[in-house]
Design goal:
By secondary structure, this protein is α/β, with parallel strands linked by helices. The protein is built from 13 helices and 14 strands. It starts with 17 loop residues before the first strand and ends in a 5-residue tail after the last helix. About 45% of the residues are buried. The structure holds pyridoxal-5'-phosphate (PLP).
C-alpha cells in the first residue's frame, strides 16, 4: 500500500505548460486540483447536484433556463456534434454550410449515417456570402435544419451567427451550431440568434479538462425529437435529456472527476466574466500577431474575418525550416504549437485561448525568435 500514498503538501507544484494548440487549453492549478475529490458514485444525489449546477450555468452563459437546457455527454466535442446530428436526421432534410475542416467533419458524420443532406460549400478562408446562402436556401424549401460551425478552428474563420440566425428565421429552418471553439469567449445569445442546438465542450475556452461534450438546446426543439427515432443508442440526445430530467443522472457512467473540474472552471469563468475573458484573449492575439508580423510572418486570413482566438500562419519559405523541429524546440521551452489544417496551404497554427495572457505570448515570441535565428544560422535543421 505504501507506494500508493501520495502527498500533496504546500510545496506540491505542477509544471505549467503554455498550450498554444486549439484546445485542450492551459488550465489553472485550481481547475487541475478540483479533480482530486473523495470517490463518489455518480448516482448519488450529491453528484446530481454537481451536474445540475453545470447544466444550469452552461445554459445561462448563452440563453435562459426557462426555454433552454443543457444535455451532457461523456466524450470529446465530436460526440456532442454526432449526438445532435444522429438524433435529428431521421425523416428530416439537413443543410450543411461547409466552410472548414469542422463543418467538413459534420458532412463525414452524416455520410456515416447515410443521411440525406445538402452540402453547400463556401470558401475556407473568406467570409460567407450571406446573400448567396439566402438564395441557396430559397432553392431548397424542404430543408429542416441548417448545420454549421461558428468558429472554424482549422483557419480561425468566424461566421456571423446573427446573420445566419436571421436567414434561418426567414426560411423557417432550425439552426444547429458547433460552437466548440467560440463558446465561453465570443458572445453568443441563443434566443436572439435563433439557435435551436448549440454544441461545445469542456476543454477549450471554458478552461476545463477534456472529456465532456454538451448540447445546449431550445426545449421545444428538443421536444420535437420525441417523434424522431435516434440513430445512435449511446448518443441519443432526447433519451439523455429525459433521463437526466427524471433522475439527475446520466444514462451511462459520466467522467466524474472531469465534471468536478468543469464545475470549478465554470466558477472561474463567471468570476472573470465572458467580456473580460474575450478581452484577455484579444489582447493576447494582438500581441501575437504584432510580434509575428515583426518576425516576418504572414497570415492565412484577413484580420476582419478572424476570431482572434487562433491564427493560421504561413510557414517560412526557407530550406532550413521544418515544422517538427520548430515544434520540438518550442515544446522544450514549454510552448505547444499546432500543425495547419487546410491542405492547400502550408500553415501552422497558434491559438491564444486558455489560462494564459499576453505575457506568455511575449515569452513565446522570444523563444520563437531564438529558434528562427538559429534556423537562419543553419543550427536547427
Ligand atoms: C475542437 C473542435 C471540435 C471537437 O473536437 P474533439 O477532438 O472531438 O474534441 C469540433 N468542432 C470544432 C469547431 C472544434 O474546434
Amino acid at each position: 500500500m505504501k507506494e500508493r500514498l501520495m502527498k500533496f503538501g504546500p510545496d506540491f507544484k505542477i509544471r505549467r505548460n503554455v498550450l498554444l494548440n486549439p484546445g485542450p487549453a492551459t488550465t489553472t492549478d485550481s481547475v487541475k486540483m478540483a479533480q482530486v475529490v473523495p470517490d463518489i458514485c455518480p448516482r448519488e444525489k450529491e453528484f446530481g447536484d454537481v451536474m445540475q449546477f453545470i447544466v444550469d450555468e452552461l445554459t445561462e452563459l448563452v440563453a435562459n433556463r426557462e426555454e433552454y437546457t443543457t444535455v451532457l455527454f461523456g466524450g470529446s466535442g465530436t460526440a456532442g456534434v454526432e449526438a445532435v446530428l444522429s438524433s435529428i436526421l431521421t425523416g428530416k432534410k439537413l443543410f450543411v454550410l461547409n466552410n472548414g475542416a469542422y463543418s467538413e467533419r459534420m458532412c463525414k458524420i452524416l455520410r456515416t449515417y447515410q443521411a440525406d443532406f445538402i452540402e453547400w460549400k463556401s470558401d475556407f478562408i473568406t467570409a460567407v456570402d450571406y446573400d448567396a446562402l439566402r438564395q441557396e436556401l430559397s432553392r431548397h424549401p424542404d430543408v429542416d435544419y441548417l448545420c454549421m460551425v461558428h468558429h472554424e478552428t482549422g483557419t480561425g474563420l468566424l461566421n456571423d451567427l446573427s446573420e445566419i440566425g436571421k436567414i434561418c428565421k426567414e426560411h423557417a429552418v432550425e439552426l444547429v451550431v458547433d460552437a466548440m471553439s467560440s463558446f465561453a469567449a465570443i458572445p453568443i445569445d441563443m434566443p436572439a440568434m435563433n439557435i435551436a442546438f448549440l454544441i461545445a465542450s469542456s476543454n477549450k475556452n471554458l478552461q476545463g479538462m477534456a472529456g465532456v461534450a454538451f448540447v445546449i438546446a431550445h426545449r421545444q426543439a428538443l421536444e420535437k425529437l420525441k417523434e424522431i427515432p435516434a440513430r445512435s443508442f449511446y448518443l441519443d440526445l432526447y433519451a439523455q435529456h429525459t433521463y437526466f430530467e427524471k433522475t439527475r443522472q446520466t444514462r451511462f457512467t459520466p467522467p466524474v472527476q472531469t465534471l468536478y473540474a468543469l464545475k470549478q472552471a465554470i466558477l472561474e469563468t463567471k468570476e472573470e466574466t465572458l467580456p473580460i475573458r474575450y478581452q484577455r484573449y484579444t489582447q493576447s492575439w494582438e500581441t501575437l500577431t504584432t510580434g509575428l508580423r515583426r518576425l516576418g510572418f504572414r497570415f492565412l486570413l484577413r484580420d476582419s474575418d478572424q476570431s482572434k482566438l487562433i491564427t493560421a500562419i504561413f510557414e517560412p519559405d526557407t530550406k532550413n525550416y521544418h515544422f517538427d523541429t520548430m515544434h520540438d524546440f518550442l515544446y522544450q521551452h514549454g510552448f505547444t504549437i499546432y500543425p495547419g489544417k487546410v491542405s492547400s496551404y502550408d500553415t501552422f497554427r497558434v491559438a491564444n485561448i486558455g489560462a494564459i495572457d499576453r505575457t506568455d505570448i511575449t515569452e513565446f515570441l522570444n523563444v520563437l525568435q531564438e529558434y528562427l535565428e538559429g534556423m537562419t544560422r543553419g543550427e536547427n535543421s
